[in-house]
Amino acid sequence: MSQPNASTSDRLVTTSDGKQVIDNRPEVTVRSNTVTDKRKALNTSNNNIHNNHNHNKYIPHKRVRIECEDIETDAKMSENASIAVTNNQNNRYSLSSNGVSKGTQLANSTKPGTAKKLVIKNFEKPKLPENYSTQTWDRMKEAVVAIQKSEPVSTSLEELYQAVGNLCFHKMAPDLYKQLESLVEVHVKNCVLQFLNADMDHLSYLKLMNNCWQSHCNQMIMIRSIFLYLDRTYVLQTAQILSIWDMGLEMFRKHITNDSIVQTRTVDGLLKLIESERSGEGVDRGLLKSLLRMLSDLSIYRNAFEIRFLQSTEQLYASEGQRLMQSMEVPDYLSHVDKRVNEEWERLLHYLDHSTRKPLIQTVEKQLISEHLPNILSKGLDQLLDTHRITDLSLMYNLLNRVKEGLGELCSHFNQYIKKKGKVIVTSPEKDKEMVQELLDFKDQMDLVSNQCFSKNEKFTNSLKEAFEQFINQRANKPAELIAKFVDSKLRAGNKEATEEELEKLLDKIMVLFRFIHGKDVFEAFYKKDLAKRLLVGKSASVDAEKSMLSKLKQECGAAFTSKLEGMFKDMELSKELMLNFKQYLNNAKPNGAVEMNVNILTMGYWPTYQPMEVHMPSEMVEYQEIFKRFYLSKHSGRKLQWQPNLGHCVLKACFAAGNKELQVSLFQALVLLLFNDTNDFSLEEIKQSTAIEDSELRRTLQSLACGKARVLTKSPKGRDVLDDDRFAYNCDFKNKLFRIKINQIQLKETQEEQATTQERVFQDRQYQIDAAIVRIMKTRKTLTHNLLLSELYDQLKFPVKPADLKKRIESLIERDYLERDKENTNLYHYVA
What we know:
The chain is α+β, with helices and mostly antiparallel strands. It is built from 30 helices and 18 strands.
């Protein structure tokens, strides 16, 4: 900084403790309009002296000359630097070199209320010696040249710094800046010559450029430290000129890097070095980082390097992508792409400028992913899904997530794959037995892919659900039927495949498939039929599991869906209580025989519809039926009982040569076996006449007794099928290691007729629901067009239905006078009250 102007006269000043110090402070005149301002100025001077004295050393301060002016008088400074000031209240103070004390008289009194002014003035600047600027610049030039040549500087840097300050203080800063700028420019011009005629390989050329750049930076740092005062005063205050550092950068950019030959060779060398690294060779990343930082500091990084770099990157990866996509399998190609992307991230981390990040990564992703997106998905996705390549699928998702349309295309192909595979499972009749299990396994696989590989992306989850719902309903009604039968197989007694916890998880998975089914009423019909068999024959594996499944169905479809199923359970519980009372009633009735009879009372509205069947029962059974009928009607008058022999089952005691056995059989099987108590041999026709069992049912029953594993009857001639001329005899030589023997209950096996009957019943129920929905809508709306009526029907009906079927039901209601057509507009319907 510049030294302040001051007088060189020294004076002795006495401090408050009696010591004398030298006062060589330059005088400063203080002008003030108020006594308070004067007082502050005087106290400031006094405190400075005290502070110096307290530190046992004297630091020179400016001598202050204080002028007190008013309208009439001007108090002058006395020889001992004391001044008196009178305020408006005539209080007197004296200012001495060591402070202010009361009691000193004013040198000149002033009038009360007179304005006063303190003025502080510096003394005049000292003049520089002649030729000072020329001599000083010579020394500075010598120092700068020495720095540029990496030689020792003869003059002290501190002296040079002070000299720069003196020149700036005396308004010579503009000339000094121009001289320095010219000197730097000459040096840089000389440096460019070594690059123009250099005959060397690209690596040596880059090293030479890096050495030149590093030397230039170090030189400018040293030069700036000498001319720091110039940089912080004149340069800072002048907007039109560059700072010393920026001026050095501008010179380097102007004369070296902006030279077309030098710039081209430098950028070519950098690109070759990066190309070598991409080819797997080791390179000097420090050299790359230094030179790219140089281009960035010189503000030519983008125009000189980045544009060409991105072009070369695009060309490299475009050709590489085309070549590898044809020669590599998709998993290997994806691994290569991931490797390339990571390599480019490393280059960004080590030496490329951060501004290159976005265009570079976009270029790599475009050439290696976007351009080959259809091939990657069509060639590789199905293969990866078929072989359950979880890691590769995750990599595919992460890579395609980088490009704009990547996830959309992946989701679309994923959806198509599910529909294609699912259609094969559902529409193949030969796979009906394994259909549900295959659907469950397929759903688990796709869920695993969606959750682990696709990061539980909601878009993929929804696409998976949509695909399952689409393909599972391509075969109307059959999946619903098979799912109901699958549940039956898992809930039936004897299923030892799973624990209760595993069974619960399986039921949850089945409910997921159930949600996809449109014809839920088909499921309900078959499920209710199978549930009835399990409950009536006592084949249910677990009451808790049954009720858990019922609860899931209720939660999914509502109370109306499960009301009949719940009624079936209620009937079974009421029947148990009823049989306790019946046993007490039997004790009083004392019937003939020792038959233990158990009866289940079924509410017709809850249970499946069974065809009534009349058979010839033994007299003992008929007697017990009549006793129970009287017992029940005595408790519930007005009700009607209809016996269902096809649902009954019995336990018979049988005597064989090998010992006595108990046979667990159906009621039809029991009726046939009881005939052999009187005669050992019967023909098919004789058995039919004696039992009145329907022909097809009788043939299946005899087949189970004479042709199955437990052959308690013999058939002649032998064979698997029962023919009209066959005769049957009691097999007294029957042997079995078990005491209680279960003979397969043929009537529990579902026949084609039963399936057709169930489906027909579902169809009839749907017609009733359609009729009810039409009447309900028309009763509310009174008048509707055909299209609006169909639209509302589709909203209310929970099963798939064709427009032609709806039109038939509308015509039926018109014939039955529930609706009528408008006389003028046949497309308009009116409700008939």
